[in-house]
Structures are given as C-alpha cells and as structure tokens.
C-alpha cells in the first residue's frame, strides 16, 4: 500500500510581517474614515483621529448628508450610477466583443492592432484628458453626461484582459464544432463563448466599474454645473467650502459622504470576489 505524506508549506516570518504591515496600511485609513464619520464638526478638531467623539453622530451625519443643499448628494449618487452603468457597462461589452474577436479571428493588421492596444494601455488617462476636452468642446458635448460616458466606453486594459483570457479559455476545437453544427458566428459568441468568458467579463467589469466610480479628473474638466457632478467631484466641492472669506466647513458631511461612497464598491467586490479571483488566475495553470 502506497503512503502519502503531506508536508506543510514553509512559512516566512519576513513575508508574514510584510503582509501584516500591508494589512495595517490598508485598514487604518478605512478605520479612520469610519471613526471620523461618526463625529460632529467640532469633535473632528478636538479629538484624536483614531478615537471616537463624545457622541456617536454617524446616523445624524448620514441624514444631514442626504438633505444638505436640497439633497444634492442624491443627484450626485444618481449621476455616478449613470456613468458606471452606461460607461463601465458599455466598456465591458465593447472590450468583450473586441477582445474575443482579436483572440479568435485572424485578419490583416492584427499585429498592428495588438501594438496599438498595448500602447494605449501604457498611456495614463490624465494625459488624454485635455485633448479629449478640446475635442468635446468643439462638438458641443462638454457639461453633459456624454462628456463623461463616451470616454469611459474605451478600456484598452479591459480589451487586453479579455483578449488574453479568451485565447486560453476558449478552445478552437469548440468553435469548429459549433460551426460544423451550423451555428453562425454571432450565435456562437452569444450561446457558446459568453459562458466561457464569464470570469473574465466579471474581472473587466470590476476594473472598469472602480475606474469609472473613482473617476475625478475627467468630470472635473468636462463638467461645470454641479447637477452633473459625480460623487468624487461633488464631495471635493463640499470640501472646498472650508476655504475663502465666506467659509462654511462641513468636513463631517464630507467624511460621511466619502464613507457612503465606498460602500457600493465594497459590496460589489464581496459579491463578485470568487469570479474575480478565477478570472485573474485563468491561464496560470496548463494541463
């Protein structure tokens, strides 16, 4: 009878220490935000940043955040959801279709497209913000939701992720079998390959959603009316009220709004974590 011995993986105290420091570095800002969102405006300056105030004012701050300035926070939240659903959702759809096509079809200029995509991944979005503004200004689209949505539809990194994932996750034999059965290319894409691409699609969705949700510089230069602001720009406007001759600091509402802003992202990551992990590890193990 054969016996098998299971050895425990080696543990590194140095790596464990680095992970503990990284965990502390990640959690301390979140803890600081939760604690300070529960303070009143005076308590923010009279108590330590990591200690609670005399009274727990979180729920009172939440109520004031939603009602301040005629409930503009609700408008900013709706704008952010619009930009994420249409912009990030559209970017995921386009990246999925284009990435699959580039991975599974051969056509002239394919290598050139690959080079352009890699080059686009290396360009920071802030470098394109000003040229994009000038172009949209000529078209008369600035200060409209389209000025934020249309640039968000392009995700070179998402396209590259789907391209790499589809190349390994979808066997060419599966496509050939579907073609022999008489299925057209669109039907193959919708009924066969989409199921195989789900982990990759979830991964791209998370990346584009976070990128659009946290987008600040593009809406800042594209939008001038507060009614079209996303949460990032709107909360920064609230923070700027503390400056100037007629200063009206509302840091307690800024912190509470920041806490409310990250909750949807945390929920999304928790719900789609297993798909995200499987998407990132696709192709790492060969049979």
From TrEMBL:
<feature type="transmembrane region" description="Helical">
    <location>
        <begin position="250"/>
        <end position="271"/>
    </location>
</feature>
<dbReference type="InterPro" id="IPR000515">
    <property type="entry name" value="MetI-like"/>
</dbReference>
<dbReference type="GO" id="GO:0055085">
    <property type="term" value="P:transmembrane transport"/>
</dbReference>
<dbReference type="Pfam" id="PF00528">
    <property type="entry name" value="BPD_transp_1"/>
</dbReference>
<keyword id="KW-1003">Cell membrane</keyword>
<keyword id="KW-1133">Transmembrane helix</keyword>
<protein>
    <submittedName>
        <fullName>ABC transporter permease</fullName>
    </submittedName>
</protein>
<feature type="domain" description="ABC transmembrane type-1">
    <location>
        <begin position="77"/>
        <end position="272"/>
    </location>
</feature>
<feature type="transmembrane region" description="Helical">
    <location>
        <begin position="112"/>
        <end position="134"/>
    </location>
</feature>
<feature type="transmembrane region" description="Helical">
    <location>
        <begin position="146"/>
        <end position="167"/>
    </location>
</feature>
<keyword id="KW-0812">Transmembrane</keyword>
<feature type="transmembrane region" description="Helical">
    <location>
        <begin position="81"/>
        <end position="100"/>
    </location>
</feature>
<keyword id="KW-0813">Transport</keyword>
<dbReference type="InterPro" id="IPR035906">
    <property type="entry name" value="MetI-like_sf"/>
</dbReference>
<feature type="transmembrane region" description="Helical">
    <location>
        <begin position="12"/>
        <end position="35"/>
    </location>
</feature>
<feature type="transmembrane region" description="Helical">
    <location>
        <begin position="188"/>
        <end position="210"/>
    </location>
</feature>
<dbReference type="GO" id="GO:0005886">
    <property type="term" value="C:plasma membrane"/>
</dbReference>
<keyword id="KW-0472">Membrane</keyword>
<comment type="similarity">
    <text>Belongs to the binding-protein-dependent transport system permease family.</text>
</comment>
